[in-house]
């Protein structure tokens, strides 16, 4: 599903954000990537989405090489990947339904397909009762649920969650993690980048720890040990 092969990423003037990173993620796996600020988590996610390319080594999504991607390839890659960020960027003048529908419209889905699929996606994330609400009417946890629904709109094989609970209280944060686990249970591979120690320890799934751009540990049923 996902493979980092001796990946290094260097930013000017000479900052090694990642240094010979090696690891693989199997289809259907749930993995937490943890590390202090500056450890390389965000750089790793930018490589997964094709926003950046490795300076050394390569990243593969299935058998697609990030290093060899052209601009024409990027839409194909991004149809395979859903991304959820800490900074929830919903369209403020669109309803919950319209926010998710817009992601499908951009993906070229027909109107009939959108009308059929969006309610099902919103039901999956527990927002079936808020289809006509606007983002300003939602709580932080509800907004993040809609953001997850939008990320799932094109049925990605891989869901990347970059600090998705960073702006939430502990109750809403745990509910979002439970939702990610539910999505993973239905077969989507999930990569969670976070510094939330208690959440990681509660998940009891694989944990990859980054320190100074290197993989310091990789444990099944791991814990946040920093």
From TrEMBL:
Q: One GO molecular-function annotation for this sequence?
A: transmembrane transporter activity
Q: GO biological process annotations for this chain's record?
A: cell division
Highest taxon, organism lineage: Bacteria
State its location(s).
Cell membrane
Q: How does it sit in the membrane?
A: Peripheral membrane protein
Among InterPro entries, the record links this protein to: AAA+_ATPase (IPR003593), ABC_transporter-like_ATP-bd (IPR003439), ABC_transporter-like_CS (IPR017871), ABC_transpr_LolD-like (IPR015854), Cell_div_FtsE (IPR005286), P-loop_NTPase (IPR027417)
Q: Which GO terms describe its cellular component?
A: plasma membrane
Q: Does the keyword DNA repair apply?
A: no
Where does the record place the ABC transporter domain?
Answer: 2-226
* UniProt KW keywords: ATP-binding, Cell cycle, Cell division, Cell membrane, Membrane, Nucleotide-binding
Indicate yes or no for the key word Cell division: yes
Q: Give the family this protein belongs to, as stated in its UniProt record.
A: Belongs to the ABC transporter superfamily.
State the oligomer form and interacting partners.
Homodimer. Forms a membrane-associated complex with FtsX.
Q: What does this protein do?
A: Part of the ABC transporter FtsEX involved in cellular division.
The name this protein carries in UniProt is Cell division ATP-binding protein FtsE
Q: Which organism's genome codes for this protein?
A: Candidatus Doudnabacteria bacterium RIFCSPHIGHO2_02_FULL_46_11
Task: Give the gene name.
Answer: ftsE
